[in-house]
Amino acid sequence: MRFLHTSDWQLGMPAAFLARYDDAVPAEFARARLDAVERLGEVAAERGCAFIVVAGDVFDSNSPDPQQLGRAVERLRGLPVPAYLLPGNHDSLDPSSVYRRPEFAGLAEHGVHVIRDSAPIEVAEGVQLVGAPFRSRTPAADPVAAALSGLDRPAGIRILVGHGQLEGFGGEALIDAGALAAAVAEGVVDYVALGDRHGTLEAAPRTWFSGSPEVTDFDDVEHDSGRVLVVDVAADAAGETTVAVEPVRVGRWAFRAIDADIASDADLDAFLARLAELPDKDRTVVKYSLRGEVTIGQKLRLDAALDRFRDLFACLYRRERTFDLAVVPGDGDLPDLGLTGVPARAAERLIAHAQSGSDGAETAARALRTLIRLAGKES
Ligand SMILES: [Mn+2]
Predict the structure, then answer these.
(1) 351 vs 330: which has the higher pLDDT
(2) What keywords would UniProt list here (predicted)?
């Protein structure tokens, strides 16, 4: 018996910060999240998965943008195998839940089912799903423990679908890891499909977080997202089961956080080479943080390169909070600008200002670069 485990689609995630340089990018990213749903459906069909479980946070909120909601429902209807959606903390089954909208009323006919309680669902012959839906954004008690209570060892295969952080993996734990491990060890459940963590993780035997199928955050906080899990559960004649899990990449975007210390031309070259080497730049978001000191010449070179890179990446921006790069005078520092007259005098003043280390130094360096460009002296 094979199925596909995914979670944390976070459809409708606004990501307005991506509009820094290009208004179209948030829409491209929203489209990528929907396309990931289409691709995971293709994986399910190609691998012969009997169904798909989405372990919470299908939507980023219970009030998604109407266009995003409409398009998401279309993608759900288009999935090639039945799908079971678990309400998580972002799309909990409270009175305002997205799953109470009319758009969801007829979806069961199209094989799209919302897990609204913890009653066992017979998804295939001898295969049972037990879900632990969120009824509010911050449940008072562990929904997984509640779903497990009173369950005995099943005759066939049982898959538990839950959402929330697990004890022992950082963050505020919601799920009692001990009770879950006991249920697995006793054969009450054969596999635990979890969501909430956006990176893929085998948290315990037969217990996995699938992670988001498309990236949601920078790689300094989110690791190994962009995957779905193809899960095989096999039962022998005595009813003993074995589980095999294969992560499959479906995500196409990347969010990179790059930090670098710059103290020499070599450091600057290395930073620029890291940017140059990143693949799929138009689907890559970069926030960079530089520390150290550069000469005027190095600053001009850096700014010129960043101007070019900004056109290539989906979004490239400076992380103000940790950016600390000072412009300092250096030997043989000043490039021969080849300027005369008023532009030359303006350049001299800007250079002095850029080297002063005062509050306006950064602005002066930028103005100097603009001046060089306007004078047509850029090499
Ligand atoms: Mn989530």
Answers:
(1) 351
(2) Exonuclease, Hydrolase, Nuclease
Give the chain's mean pLDDT: 92
**How far apart are the CA of 64 and the centre of ligand 1, in A?**
14
State in Å: Cα 291 to ligand 1 middle.
33
Contacts of 85 (CB under 8 A, 6+ apart): 54, 58, 76, 99, 112, 113, 114, 115
Q: How far is the CA of 187 from the centre of ligand 1 (A)?
A: 28
Query: How many domains is the chain built from?
Result: 2
Q: How far is the CA of 221 from the centre of ligand 1 (A)?
A: 14
Q: For the CA atoms of the chain, what is the radius of gyration?
A: 26
Residue 163 CA to ligand 1 center (angstroms) comes to 9
**CATH for 215:** 3.60.21.10
Same domain, 180 and 195: yes
Percentage of residues of the chain with pLDDT beyond 90:
76
**Mean pLDDT, residues 138-155 taken together:** 93
149 and 31 housed in the same domain: yes
Distance CA 290, CA 364 (A): 18
Which residue range forms the structural domain that includes residue 87? 2-249
| Whether 258 and 245 share a structural domain | no
